[in-house]
What we know:
Helix content is about 65%, strand content about 10%. It has helices at about 1-35, 50-70, 80-100, 110-140, 155-165, 185-195, 210-225, 235, 260-295; strands at about 145-150, 170-180, 200-205, 225-230, 240-245, 250-255. It has a four-stranded parallel sheet, with helices on both faces. The longest helix has about 35 residues, at about 260-295.
Amino acid sequence: MKRRLDLLLAGILVPLDYGALLAAGWLAYTVRFNQVAGLLPIVSTVPSGVYLRLIIIVAAGWVGVLALDGVYRLRQPVSSELGRIFLGASTSVLLIIVLIFFQREFFASRFIIVASWVFAVVLLWLVHLLVRGLQSLLLRQGIGARQVVLFGHDRTAEEILRLFRVRASLGYRVVQSWPEVTPDSMAAFETLLAGGTVDQVIQADPTMPKAQTLQLLERCAEHGVVFSYAADVFDTQVGNISFRELAGVPMIEIKRTPLDGWGRIIKRAVDLALGSLVMLVFLLPSLIVAVIIKLDSAGP
Length: 300
């Protein structure tokens, strides 16, 4: 049920986004040639029929860019989804600008391009927030929730159980919980796996023996079930670690500081490299826009 709901919502988003993009393009056209026509001189007009046919094609390509950017990826954080919408919209506008530069027969209204981008971002955000709200409502009713099996009996396991009960909108429903891995619990676990009612297994006890963890991992791999485990408190508190090999043995080394020694040099080099790359990435669109403005407008 969970997979069907995710696919249904993703399938709903595509036509809704397409409609939102058509609306954004038409709003930009209407505002340009009606509301702000007296403020901004109209150098050339675009027939409404020609413009409508154009945005039908452009909106389809825009949705393709959003898909490539991962906007329709299932169960991603809201902040990540909205960020991908912004990035996908910006990429699409940049492609439109490049297309206009090489195809002079298309309209070259800078206002319509900028307004379309603004309206598109706003409308796409609204559409996705509405669909997210619908998804949250369904999850609170238990529709489409991820069926979870939990192993563990310590405080971490209790906290996870409490969190899933209190925040049903997270989309997790614990169908079974065992304090530890035993022959009896594994037999019951195998029955659940065979019935196809398990979507994810969570090992909530970081002190569980490695052999038992590997046993759970193997069963999940055999049945195509997601396996997650709670990290040790020590692992979550220590961020400045590195992996190295000593006499053929993998070792975890805790540094005095994340920027110890060569770390400072590497960070500075990365900062300079990324800064230069970002400058080059934005330099080309700026030059293209400058050329378009020069070709389209009189004066400096």
